[in-house]
Amino acid sequence: xxxxxxxxxxxxxxxxxxxxxxxxxxxxxxxxxxxxxxxxxxxxxxxxxxxxxxxxxxxxxxxxxxxxxxxxxxxxxxxxxxxxxxxxxxxxxxxxxxxxxxxxxxxxxxxxxxxxxxxxxxxxxxxxxxxxxxxxxxxxxxxxxxxxxxxxxxxxxxxxxxxxxxxxxxxxxxxxxxxxxxxxxxxxxxxxxxxxxxxxxxxxxxxxxxxxxxxxxxxxxxxxxxxxxxxxxxxxxx
Amino acid sequence: xxxxxxxxxxxxxxxxxxxxxxxxxxxxxxxxxxxxxxxxxxxxxxxxxxxxxxxxxxxxxxxxxxxxxxxxxxxxxxxxxxxxxxxxxxxxxxxxxxxxxxxxxxxxxxxxxxxxxxxxxxxxxxxxxxxxxxxxxxxxxxxxxxxxxxxxxxxxxxxxxxxxxxxxxxxxxxxxxxxxxxxxxxxxxxxxxxxxxxxxxxxxxxxxxxxxxxxxxxxxxxxxxxxxxxxxxxxxxxxxxxxxxxxxxxxxxxxxxxxxxxxxxxxxxxxxxxxxxxxxxxxxxxx
Amino acid sequence: xxxxxxxxxxxxxxxxxxxxxxxxxxxxxxxxxxxxxxxxxxxxxxxxxxxxxxxxxxxxxxxxxxxxxxxxxxxxxxxxxxxxxxxxxxxxxxxxxxxxxxxxxxxxxxxxxxxxxxxxxxxxxxxxxxxxxxxxxxxxxxxxxxxxxxxxxxxxxxxxxxxxxxxxxxxxxxxxxxxxxxxxxxxxxxxxxxxxxxxxxxxxxxxxxxxxxxxxxxxxxxxxxxxxxxxxxxxxxxxxxxxxxxxxxxxxxx
Amino acid sequence: xxxxxxxxxxxxxxxxxxxxxxxxxxxxxxxxxxxxxxxxxxxxxxxxxxxxxxxxxxxxxxxxxxxxxxxxxxxxxxxxxxxxxxxxxxxxxxxxxxxxxxxxxxxxxxxxxxxxxxxxxxxxxxxxxxxxxxxxxxxxxxxxxxxxxxxxxxxxxxxxxxxxxxxxxxxxxxxxxxxxxxxxxxxxxxxxxxxxxxxxxxxxxxxxxxxxxxxxxxxxxxxxxxxxxxxxxxxxxxxxxxxxxxxxxxxxxxxxxxxxxxxxxxxxxxxxxxxxxxxxxxxxxxxxxxxxxxxxxxxxxxxxxxxxxxxxxxxxxxxxxxxxxxxxxxxxxxxx
Amino acid sequence: xxxxxxxxxxxxxxxxxxxxxxxxxxxxxxxxxxxxxxxxxxxxxxxxxxxxxxxxxxxxxxxxxxxxxxxxxxxxxxxxxxxxxxxxxxxxxxxxxxxxxxxxxxxxxxxxxxxxxxxxxxxxxxxxxxxxxxxxxxxxxxxxxxxxxxxxxxxxxxxxxxxxxxxxxxxxxxxxxxxxxxxxxxxxxxxxxxxxxxxxxxxxxxxxxxxxxxxxxxxxxxxxxxxxxxxxxxxxxxxxxxxxxxxxxxxxxxxxxxxxxxxxxxxxxxxxxxxxxxxxxxxxxxxxxxxxxxxxxxxxxxxxxxxxxxxxxxxxxxxxxxxxxxxxxxxxxxxxxxxxxxxxxxxxxxxxxxxxxxxxxxxxxxxxxx
Lengths: 238, 287, 254, 336, 370
Ligand SMILES: Nc1ncnc2c1ncn2[C@@H]1O[C@H](COP(=O)(O)OP(=O)(O)OP(=O)(O)O)[C@@H](O)[C@H]1O
Ligand SMILES: Nc1ncnc2c1ncn2[C@@H]1O[C@H](COP(=O)(O)OP(=O)(O)OP(=O)(O)O)[C@@H](O)[C@H]1O
Ligand SMILES: [Mg+2]
Ligand SMILES: [Mg+2]
Hints:
CATH class of chain B: Mainly Alpha
Pfam family, one (chain C): BCA_ABC_TP_C
Family (chain C): Belongs to the ABC transporter superfamily.
GO molecular function, one term (chain C): ATP hydrolysis activity
Number of helices of chain C: 9
Oligomer: heteropentamer
Number of strands of chain C: 10
Structural class of chain C: alpha/beta
Shape of chain B: globular
Bound molecules: adenosine-5'-triphosphate, magnesium ion
Helix content of chain B: over 70%
Strand content of chain C: 15-25%
Strand content of chain B: under 5%
CATH superfamily of the largest domain in chain C: P-loop containing nucleotide triphosphate hydrolases
Protein name (chain C): ABC transporter ATP-binding protein
Number of domains of chain C: 2
Keywords (chain C): ATP-binding, Nucleotide-binding, Transport
Distance between the termini of chain B: 44 Å
Number of helices of chain B: 12
């Protein structure tokens, strides 16, 4: 039985003096697909960024694969197997597509780039283009492909579908599911399209003003109309 | 005709010397995005070390050059660790403030330790004297500087564009936290690049000392020249810097021959013209 | 049909890659058009060409009959052509109120004024609060943009565009990054727009597209491959294959 | 919920203008108080204080384009020097010695230089822009050097004299008149600038600083606004230059030098860009510090200045005033 | 009483060496003559002015007068700095003793100015005769494009044409020139037999002299003439062999052979730390202090600028540079100008060897201006 890929205990974090997250605890079993939901500005991005070591942490511990990484800088966490696809995409604008991917390789041979091109043929066509010349969707593909190339054991995805065409979204969600199943990869997904997220995930947590407000299975959440209405504000929409 | 050739040779030599001295700045400014006004100060430190090694200790020129590069890098390590690391990614003007402060300190210390006089670096006999080009003679050390310039340009270009170190460096500069999130140890990458830039500064300071002699005020006296050639070339671009140095060297030299009293006008008008045509420098990386 | 907005034979290529390939399109007042298409099809480029952020290789852009191809980006805005950005472009150090106020003052031609503070101009402030509360971000009025979440920035981006009171509004993925709970606000804001305003919206969220659009234009590889009603677009085989995928089969209550 | 928040926002919105008006007045009073303290603290050193005011005007003018518009320039002394020469030439060559007329000449000279600088400098972005400004200041400097029959070349323009102000207040060795004159000019300029930076135009400029493309997409022309600001900036620098010419009665090439440009930028960043008090406090602190250490050790004071700059970046990265203001704001927020 | 002397000079920055020499000269004088004149103790207050900056100069002078209550102002390396101070002298009731600034006209700006250094006209005029005597009739003049450079050019031209020679071309080059190869090419192409040059001391001198050698001008027999700023002693170690044989005219050489100079050099070298750093501003400062001491003596320590200046008009003494006097009319120093040649000493160091003396030279610059 391998160690738990990701454990978070009593995490508080924020920006400068503003605290955004407050006492968050959860753990994710191996190969799990966890959806992180919440309304606008509730701290989803902050949570993932804190896990990746990019915001200020005030309190709490983070363990990856059993090892305490709380004090580690971002780069060391990445080397421990954490992969992060930020909401802002963070393409390296002056690098070509190929060079962007190259940074994500983490020392794997260059031939591995083909994996990324296999996933997104569009990127192969554009591989000599500079990052800042890509279309919005192409940037999103690049950002995701770049992180997956490093074969992370825990993958943090912050709205990876944003700006992608519906066909691509479907293919991508299928690919993520595949990775979680065969690639022994644990995935945390933040997504605005609640249905897509619930279809994909096997666990759900919901954030409300920086606190963990709900945790359970997708099915339980779908059934809990009150919670959906209160926490996600979409009850009346469907 | 002979005069034209002669001027061309002078221009080439002058441009290459400029290139050797300022290329390190192109690395810090274009690749690391630090407006490093203290570049000249590091070149000066190199010059002082070489002068001390060659003149006062009587070591050979080659040893002096190596001592200068290594010594300057060693001096620069704590400076990078405690000062520069604080301004990576900071607003440009903050960097200006910090690096000017560093320059002032280095000038003050150099003045105190070595006194305000000029320091020379004795050349080995092989580099002394002049070489006959047929239609004129040219100082051998200038030929040496041209060769050094070409070697540095080639090596640096390869390192930046073709090695994984280069890719990681450029990625770290574009977005340090994202690079870190992908497992790049940005601090080490930065420290290494800074060391390379400072080493190049020291090397340039020594090789160019015949043209720009070493004295405490060196750090400020040539600051503008370095800044101009690097920016006109497009910071971070090795070929750009090379072309800018040759072009500006050529214009400066020709202007100074034809109308010395308007030498400055020629040079700076050319700078304005080039930037108006190429607003990001000759080979500017788009941001 | 009297078109407020018309492009004719627009072409643009980047180093050999034809991104916009002979595109012609016109919109009448009151049009609600959705521009969809695969990633990299050239939608954003089209907007950039139309607004003057890029210069086309050939072709013309006309606003209310006047050719504006040679007019700068700001000149086109003055003539009523306003856009939002796909990736938010806001002033990080300025507050939400300042953004909207600036747009209002610019619309009124008052940004040249060197005296007086907008906070003391009740007409401006009222409009600012009204707009921001329509989009549900009034509580962020005096927060700097770099302190608010991305989804909220997206809403502000739309508020700025609306404050300019355009005649033709181009929205580049307005709902991207906005949580489902808040897309309703955007829809509401769009619905509240003056009826004679022509709106072109780029969007990948098909639910939103089908609720909003009365006409759908599909761009693929720089060429318009479909221009028709929302009902027809799901039936078009090429569009289904290139773009919609299984969405076309799913039931959507439009 | 939105409605509730809206009323909250409405309250704070209506509360703001009063506070800002109050703060404007308080700003002017603060300057006056500091000026009076300076007068009593350094009664024998009014020449230095007057010079600080002249340079402060240059730094304020630089703040307009750098702090508020984001134009990085190392050539701003061109505006100052042009003002100084305009005022100086009026007196030395045309015998017009009225200080107020000389100040007007300075304003005009500075504004024209601002226009020229704007036309050239605004053609570049980022580093190339910085280099354009460097090229420009060298051209101005060379030009003044060459036009020595007008400017006195490197020997400086001497032969300037200034009549008593309003025919009554004479410029004396102790510098009382000069100092009061300087403070009055500074106050007028400060109040005007305060209005401008808070006006819609000022807001537009701050927007341009952050993203000129976005401003275009809002229908405004960044270039036109920047040019306007450059001319205003030139007029302000010109006041400083004229003040310098009137009170020292010589104008040297140094007033058109790269060194002065760079120093003024250092002072601005030291105090904090993007706020008028930042520029003022940076100038006062830098020049007093420099005066103190260079008198204490005329030989090795540069090291001390360097250390000060480094310390400021390390401990007050937003500049002395900027960091202090941020600190108090945070305290206030925490308190609320 | 304590009598304060305010000295303004470049004690830091690119000209720090010259300022250091000011201080060395003053220290040497006070070491030899004590710090007392009668009952009065002399105290020197230094203020740093790193580069030409008249506004700052005036502010410093004002501060020295008003706050520090100095009775004498002295020093001043650059002309515009000195010029800026002249308007306040009368009201401040302080004499100004210039220890370097070398433009002729300064003394005309106020009757309270006395100069103990030299003028560029004074040092550049005799070299014309030297050139003529060496059989050179066509000379090209190359100077830095600033006040002193222009002075040097005019002085040389006037004197050389009077000798019957011809200045075939007069080039002014920017102060910031680093690479002199194109200038050397110009010199070659001009067909002149000799070159007259003036550059401010410092790194550019080194570049110029090296370029002269390396571009084969020396080998081609083109003679080199200059006033002594070009071969100031502190630059000689850097110039090295390149400078050998260069002839310059100047008012002072550290090697001057006289008991007064021996004592001076010993004291000044001690003050500055190393004899190698000693050069001409030191002697200007030394004699400046001498003049100030005489002034204090004459006024008995009372502040009376007019009387003080009156007292030193016509004053004659033997300076380390040789016999000198203050011209009563111009208040400028009359002195010998020496022709010197850069020579290698037995111990391997380089020095300016005096080979000819032009006695009792006044300032031709003032006459030329009239
Ligand atoms: N740099 C920052 N400084 C201060 N506060 C911030 C900063 N970034 C975000 N916040 C605040 O933190 C809270 C949470 O932001 P976060 O980006 O984590 O939300 P989110 O759940 O990802 O929202 P969205 O769905 O819009 O992406 C928001 O209220 C936001 O205003
Ligand atoms: N400056 C440029 N240089 C080269 N190629 C470019 C440039 N700008 C855009 N492109 C290319 O043009 C194509 C169209 O880009 P555009 O941004 O218009 O796509 P889009 O339809 O908006 O896509 P998305 O839905 O992903 O936002 C892309 O493939 C992009 O890589
Ligand atoms: Mg988010
Ligand atoms: Mg797009």
